[in-house]
Amino acid sequence: TDFETILLERKGRVGIITLNRPKALNALNSELMREVVSAVEELEKDSEIGAILITGSDRAFAAGADIKEMQPKSYMDVYLDDFFAAWDRLAAARKPTIAAVAGYALGGGCELAMLCDILIAADTAKFGQPEIKLGVIPGIGGSQRLTRAVGKAKAMELCLTGRNMDAEEAERAGLVSRIVPAADLLDEALQTATTIAEMSLPVAMMAKEAVNRSFETTLTEGVRFERRVFHSTFATEDQKEGMAAFVEKRPPVFKHR
Ligand code: HXC
């Protein structure tokens, strides 16, 4: 498939989507949104792919929704178009998704990173929800996902003042899983993605589904959900293989990768 605003490549079992609008610091316009969603859908269908990695450039993961595209829009334009709703498709991806973030991840850029399951940051990363400075609020889930990730006090401060936080602060607050030197970002993220992609795909999808459930339900229901899914892993060939491999002191060869 030919894309204008992203690059799509496959490395082993990992699909890599690179945001590629360098002149606009990867600002998220409608075309880029359509292309990312279409690439994710393509990778979701591809049985050779076990994990999806999304990254930007050294300077910017993405500096937000495209302000120049948004500027002329009216309430009716954004309401009738359900502006930004297509990003929900990324949140709904069943395969594990990883955001590798260097430089600016602001506004929609921070929200795009938070739509992914794992967020790995370069030491150059800067996160923020500066929408308020433009007279709007986050529109791709930032007010909800940032609050769940870092708690109310910091989410409130970031959304109300528009200030950025650096990678250290983001890691301390629990937004990112780890920080790596900028030069190693892609290698490290690819290694993590590859590790995941070598696991049993259905079981990785079940683990993802179980963790995500914790954001949607009570503890009792979440634990019940987890137990049902845990039981169902015993119906897979990969559970048989994983446990046999341990007992036989050899690496597992999962069938459903
Ligand atoms: C469109 C953008 C852009 C954006 C940068 N550019 N961010 N274009 N939308 N979000 C463009 C600039 O206009 C400029 O193009 C080029 O990218 C380089 O940016 P500079 O500003 O010259 O770079 P620098 O001085 O290094 O500053 C980097 C920056 C700044 C701090 C990231 O660009 C910035 O503040 N950008 C906006 C960040 C922001 O407010 N994001 C939230 C957007 S709202 P030209 O052609 O002029 O040289 C959002 C809403 C989500 O995400 C949902 C709510 C509805």
UniProtKB/TrEMBL annotation:
Reaction equation(s) it catalyzes: a (3S)-3-hydroxyacyl-CoA = a (2E)-enoyl-CoA + H2O; a 4-saturated-(3S)-3-hydroxyacyl-CoA = a (3E)-enoyl-CoA + H2O
Species assigned in the record: Rhodococcus pseudokoreensis
Pfam families found in the cross-reference section: ECH_1 (PF00378)
Keywords, alphabetical: Fatty acid metabolism, Lipid metabolism, Lyase
Name of the featured protein: Enoyl-CoA hydratase
The protein's role, per its UniProt record: Could possibly oxidize fatty acids using specific components.
PROSITE patterns: ENOYL_COA_HYDRATASE
InterPro entries: ClpP/crotonase-like_dom_sf, Enoyl-CoA_hyd/isom_CS, Enoyl-CoA_hydra/iso, Enoyl-CoA_hydra_C
Tagged with keyword Metal-binding: no
Class of this enzyme: lyase
UniProt cross-references to PANTHER family, sorted A to Z: ENOYL-COA HYDRATASE, MITOCHONDRIAL, ENOYL-COA HYDRATASE-RELATED
Family: Belongs to the enoyl-CoA hydratase/isomerase family.
Protein EC: 4.2.1.17
GO function term, MF aspect, one: enoyl-CoA hydratase activity
UniProt-listed SUPFAM superfamilies: ClpP/crotonase
